[in-house]
Amino acid sequence: MTLQPLPAFEPPYLMAVFSSVRGTEESGYAETLDRMNEIVAENPGFLGQESAGAPGGLGITVAYFRDHASLTRWRQDAEHQAAMEQGRAHWYESYTLHVATVERSHGFVRNG
Hints:
This protein is α+β, with helices and mostly antiparallel strands. Helices cover 32% and strands 33% of the residues. It has helices spanning 29-41, 68-76, 78-91; strands at residues 13-22, 46-53, 58-65, 92-102.
């Protein structure tokens, strides 16, 4: 498997950066994460996401959305709302969400 970042998208679009510190509670987290990935992928304005984690529980997920309407659909999804409640109650010590409009985007891939 070759790791690649997501390709550049045609701007403007939105990015939602979710930075979190996980606690020690694991019960139900992996299953909920899988379900959230399924749900967000069904959103027609969802462009993709990238995630990384570090020792100690720090994680960062950057999700890309075509427009405010698609990001709002994701934020207001009932299952996502329930997962956010579970996260605050059980899985996260802290988190921060940043939403920004991307005005410029380009990429590079080495050939050969």
